[in-house]
């Protein structure tokens, strides 16, 4: 039992806290400034009790219907501004990029897992700008994109061949396609088989990372002193997991980076994102220890740090949609047969002549956006929008999922309908294009967006040109129609995952088999 005087003191402090919080969030701002509207809050907790662990994008979309495209909620004392319209996001994050390009500080990421900040979690400081400049040169210019085309072509050849030999394992083949492509682009290192030990280890690291929590939204981010809790104490599981992931991440970063450094020293390194970044950094001066850390971690983030899993998710969404909709497969195949014929496989240079395949890719990105709530930004200084005051330090969450369900742009938004992008005028086509928002906004926009978009298109076109995707059958021969089912969560995951499903993939014809064999032989010759 506490002595009566301490009990009284505790009660008085709690009461004072509640009054201060109430004054700060409700009474005082209303006399000077108005926060955007939002659901009612509880003292001290704010809206924490209303934010579910999963599917927050749906709760936030419901709130947007009630309170508007820009709403304000509180997680304890911290204001969170939720933007549900692409136009408002552009107005704030793009046009006023100077104030909106920081990331919220994450104790879990920046203190427990990574010894120093890495790209996705960095503030928008000098280092961040330097890294983004490297990415611009390595991923976003026309010549950079051209440079990756042979790798994309080769990996498509492998994927089609793997699918013909072992179609039941399609999930692991797609995972391999994405991982191998990123490995070659990031490090210039070829991957020999799906069971590659390093890729399996990297996949394990990435999934471990995604289960410990996302940027600035775990309990330790709200109660910082929890990071000092001894690892043996009950309740310290989050810290034990974070420290495990820290070691796994360091290993995943070190192994391929050292291979590239040795190959560079021997003059045998293939051009890659890592060689490009190292050469750029060396241009001005010798490499500082910090440069090595920053570059090696940026590379491992490119390769495996969760972002490319966004592409994987889009590829799986494509397979799911094609399994559910045989009529879309037929329509796309008719377009491919007409434009490309059966004497070769589709190439990225055919893209403009295959508008229906493009509509499918757009609908994949809109229907199940890989990052439904984007990555959070942080407002660096007070700002105003319309009649609202937006306080410095607010976390900005873009509800990309809700943007893709804007009823003024998309009818029947839960349906997979590529036709919605057909025969619309140029203005509507531009505002409907999901690539204008699914990759985020402003100065932190996804640097991998062109690569991701072209990899998804290439896979869609090649797969539809050569394979039939049918529904699997159950033990009594009935077709199994997969239910579109996606897992999500801002707290535990940043992205929406496709739940596993089955489908029946077969080559369309003898000719398709020949084309796959020819491409594979070409790839095999390249490897040797
Ligand atoms: C369909 C695939 C992808 C989607 C939907 C996607 C989406 C996003 C989004 C929404 C963001 C946050 C942007 C913002 O803060 O406003 C982001 C950031 C990022 N993405 Fe992607 N991404 C994809 C693929 C990729 C790929 C293939 C790479 C690597 C080549 C990549 C690398 C990154 C990096 C490094 C960041 C952090 C940038 C920063 O913090 O400055 N992404 N992505």
TrEMBL record:
Pathway, per record: Secondary metabolite biosynthesis
Cell location: Membrane
Cofactor: heme
InterPro entries: Cyt_P450 (IPR001128), Cyt_P450_CS (IPR017972), Cyt_P450_E_grp-I (IPR002401), Cyt_P450_sf (IPR036396), Cytochrome_P450_fung (IPR050364)
GO MF terms, alphabetically ordered: heme binding; iron ion binding; monooxygenase activity; oxidoreductase activity, acting on paired donors, with incorporation or reduction of molecular oxygen
Residues annotated as binding heme: 446
Gene3D superfamilies in the cross-refs: Cytochrome P450
Main location: membrane
Topology of this chain in the membrane: Single-pass membrane protein
Gene Ontology CC terms, in alphabetical order: membrane
Protein keywords: Heme, Iron, Membrane, Metal-binding, Monooxygenase, Oxidoreductase, Transmembrane, Transmembrane helix
Family, as annotated: Belongs to the cytochrome P450 family.
PANTHER family: P450, PUTATIVE (EUROFUNG)-RELATED (PTHR46300:SF7), P450, PUTATIVE (EUROFUNG)-RELATED-RELATED (PTHR46300)
Protein name stated in the entry: Cytochrome P450
Species in which this protein is naturally found: Postia placenta MAD-698-R-SB12
Lineage: Eukaryota, Fungi, Dikarya, Basidiomycota, Agaricomycotina
């Amino acid at each position: 039992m506490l002595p009566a005087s301490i009990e009284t003191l505790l009660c008085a402090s709690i009461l004072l806290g509640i009054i201060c919080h109430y004054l700060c969030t409700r009474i005082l701002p209303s006399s000077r400034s108005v926060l955007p509207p939002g659901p009612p809050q509880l003292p001290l907790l704010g809206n924490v009790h209303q934010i579910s662990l999963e599917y927050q994008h749906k709760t936030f979309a419901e709130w947007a219907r009630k309170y508007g495209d820009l709403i304000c909620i509180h997680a304890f004392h911290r204001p969170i501004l939720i933007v549900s319209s692409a136009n408002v996001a552009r107005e704030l994050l793009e046009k006023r990029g100077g104030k909106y390009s920081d990331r919220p500080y994450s104790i879990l990421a920046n203190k427990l897992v990574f010894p120093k900040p890495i790209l996705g979690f960095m503030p928008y400081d000098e280092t961040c700008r330097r890294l983004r400049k490297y990415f611009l040169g390595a991923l976003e210019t026309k010549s950079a994109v051209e440079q990756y085309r042979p790798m994309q072509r080769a990996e498509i050849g492998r994927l089609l061949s793997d699918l013909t030999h072992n179609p039941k394992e399609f999930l692991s083949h797609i995972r391999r396609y994405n991982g191998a492509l990123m490995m070659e682009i990031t490090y210039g290192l070829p991957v020999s088989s799906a069971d590659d030990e390093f890729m399996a280890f990297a996949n394990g690291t990435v999934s471990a990372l995604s289960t410990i929590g996302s940027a600035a939204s775990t309990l330790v981010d709200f109660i910082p002193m929890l990071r000092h809790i001894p690892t043996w104490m009950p309740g310290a599981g989050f810290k034990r997991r974070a420290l495990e992931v820290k070691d796994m991440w360091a290993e995943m970063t070190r192994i391929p980076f050292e291979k590239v450094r040795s190959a560079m020293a021997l003059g045998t390194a293939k051009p890659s994102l890592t060689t490009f970044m190292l050469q750029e950094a060396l241009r001005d001066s010798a490499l500082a220890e910090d440069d090595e850390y920053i570059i090696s971690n940026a590379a491992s983030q490119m390769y495996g740090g969760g972002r490319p899993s966004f592409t994987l998710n889009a590829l799986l969404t494509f397979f799911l949609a094609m399994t559910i909709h045989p009529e879309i497969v037929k329509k796309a195949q008719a377009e491919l047969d007409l434009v490309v014929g059966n004497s070769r496989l589709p190439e990225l240079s055919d893209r403009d002549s295959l508008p229906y395949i493009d509509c499918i890719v757009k609908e994949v990105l809109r229907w199940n956006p890989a990052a439904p709530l984007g990555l959070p930004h942080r407002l660096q200084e007070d700002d105003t929008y319309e009649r609202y005051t937006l306080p410095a330090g607010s976390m900005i969450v873009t509800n990309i999922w809700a943007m893709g369900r804007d009823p003024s742009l998309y009818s029947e938004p839960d349906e997979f309908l590529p036709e919605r992008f057909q025969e619309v005028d140029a203005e509507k086509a531009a505002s409907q294009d999901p690539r204008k928002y699914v990759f985020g906004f402003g100065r932190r926009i996804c640097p991998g967006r062109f690569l991701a978009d072209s990899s998804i298109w290439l896979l869609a076109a090649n797969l539809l040109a050569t394979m039939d995707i049918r529904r699997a059958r159950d033990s009594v021969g009935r077709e199994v129609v997969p239910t579109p089912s996606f897992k999500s969560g801002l707290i535990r995951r940043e992205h929406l995952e496709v739940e596993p499903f089955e489908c029946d993939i077969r080559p369309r014809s003898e000719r398709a088999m020949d084309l796959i064999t020819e491409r594979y032989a070409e790839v095999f010759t390249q490897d040797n």
